[in-house]
Write a structure and sequence with these properties.
Layout: E1 4-16, E2 25-32, H1 40-60, E3 64-70, H2 74-83, E4 91-103, E5 115-117, H3 121-124, E6 132-134, H4 135-144, E7 149-154, E8 159-160, H5 164-174, H6 192-195, E9 199-204, E10 213-215, E11 219-220, H7 221-235, H8 242-256, E12 264-268
Parallel strand pairs: 2-3, 2-4, 4-7, 7-9, 8-10
Antiparallel strand pairs: 1-2, 1-4, 4-5, 5-6, 9-12, 10-11
Helix pairs in contact: 7-8
Length: 269
C-alpha cells in the first residue's frame, strides 16, 4: 500500500494577464481550502494578501484585472483548467491554498512537486482518487493555452508555527508596503517582470520530505517571503530577475525556519 505523506497547507497561484490598457489583462484565479479547519485561517490570509498584491500590480501596470475564485473540489479545478483559454500576451498564475501530499514511492527527480489535496483530510483516509490534482499538471494545463508567462506557486504547509521569534520575523516581512495609490500607474520600477517576461515558473514551499509552516494571523512563511521579495524587486532601482526573487524567497524562508524548510523552484524560458 502506498503511504501518503501529507503536507499541511498547499498554496498555488494561478494568475493570468490578457488584453487591457496595454494589451494585457491579469486574471487572478484561486481555489482556497475551506474544509480543513486546522489550516483555514492561514490559507485565507495568504489568499487575501495575494489578491491585494496582484490587483495592485495589475492596476499599476495598466492591465485589466479579472478575478475567479473556484469551488474547492477536484472536479471544478480540473474542469476549469481544461476549458481555460488566454491570449498570447497573457500571464497566468494559479493560487491553491490547502493540504497537499506525496506518495511514499514518488521519485524525487521525476515527481518533485506535490499533489494538491481537495478533500477533508480527517474523512478521506487513504483514498485520494477523487482528491488529488498533480501540481505539475496544473502548470502543463496552463501552458497548453500558450500564455506569454505562467506562475504556479505551491505552498504546502504541515505545521502551524508557534515559534514567537519566527512569527515576529514573518510579521516583519509582511509589513512591506504595496502600491500606496493602486489607481495610478508606473509606481513600480520593474514592471517588466510582469509585462515583458516570457517563460514559465513553478515553485514549491519545501523540498520533498520537508514540512512547511503557516501562521493563522500572518499566513504562510512561503507566500509571506514571496510577497516581500517580489515587492522589493518591483520597487528596486537595481537589475533583478525572477530567478533572484525566487532565490531570495528561498533564503528568507530558510532563515525563518532555521533551515528546516527549503523552497524549490524552476524557471523555464
Amino acid at each position: 500500500m502506498l503511504k501518503l505523506l501529507f503536507k499541511r497547507c498547499s498554496f498555488l497561484l494561478f494568475l493570468s494577464l490578457s488584453v487591457g490598457t496595454n494589451g494585457q489583462t491579469l486574471h487572478f484565479i484561486a481555489s482556497i481550502d475551506q474544509v480543513n479547519d486546522d489550516i483555514r485561517q492561514g490559507c485565507a490570509k495568504d489568499y487575501e494578501e495575494a489578491f491585494a498584491l496582484f490587483r495592485a500590480i495589475a492596476q499599476d501596470a495598466g492591465m485589466r484585472f479579472n478575478h475567479q475564485k473556484l469551488p474547492f473540489n477536484q472536479g471544478s479545478v480540473e474542469s476549469y483548467l481544461e476549458r481555460f483559454t488566454c491570449g498570447p500576451d497573457d500571464v497566468v498564475v494559479f493560487l491553491y491554498s490547502g493540504h497537499a501530499f506525496r506518495y511514499e514511492d514518488d521519485n524525487e527527480e521525476e515527481w518533485p512537486w506535490p499533489y494538491l489535496f481537495y478533500c477533508n483530510r480527517a474523512q478521506s483516509g487513504a483514498d485520494t482518487e477523487n482528491c488529488e490534482v498533480d501540481m505539475e499538471e496544473v502548470q502543463e494545463d496552463i501552458k497548453y493555452s500558450k500564455p506569454r508567462m505562467s506562475i504556479v506557486l505551491g505552498d504546502c504547509c504541515n505545521d502551524v508555527q508557534n515559534s514567537p521569534a519566527s512569527n515576529a520575523m514573518l510579521s516583519q516581512y509582511g509589513s512591506v508596503a504595496e502600491d500606496s495609490d493602486p489607481n495610478s500607474t508606473g509606481t513600480y520600477a520593474h514592471l517588466d517582470l510582469i509585462r515583458s517576461f516570457r517563460g514559465h515558473i513553478i515553485a514549491s514551499a519545501a523540498k520533498p520530505g520537508q514540512q512547511a509552516e503557516t501562521n493563522d494571523s500572518e499566513g504562510s512563511y512561503f507566500f509571506g517571503a514571496f510577497r516581500y521579495n517580489l515587492l522589493n524587486a518591483l520597487k528596486s532601482q537595481q537589475p533583478t530577475s525572477w530567478e533572484n526573487i525566487l532565490a531570495n524567497t528561498r533564503n528568507t524562508v530558510m532563515k525563518m525556519s532555521n533551515n528546516q524548510q527549503t523552497p524549490m523552484f524552476r524557471v523555464t524560458k
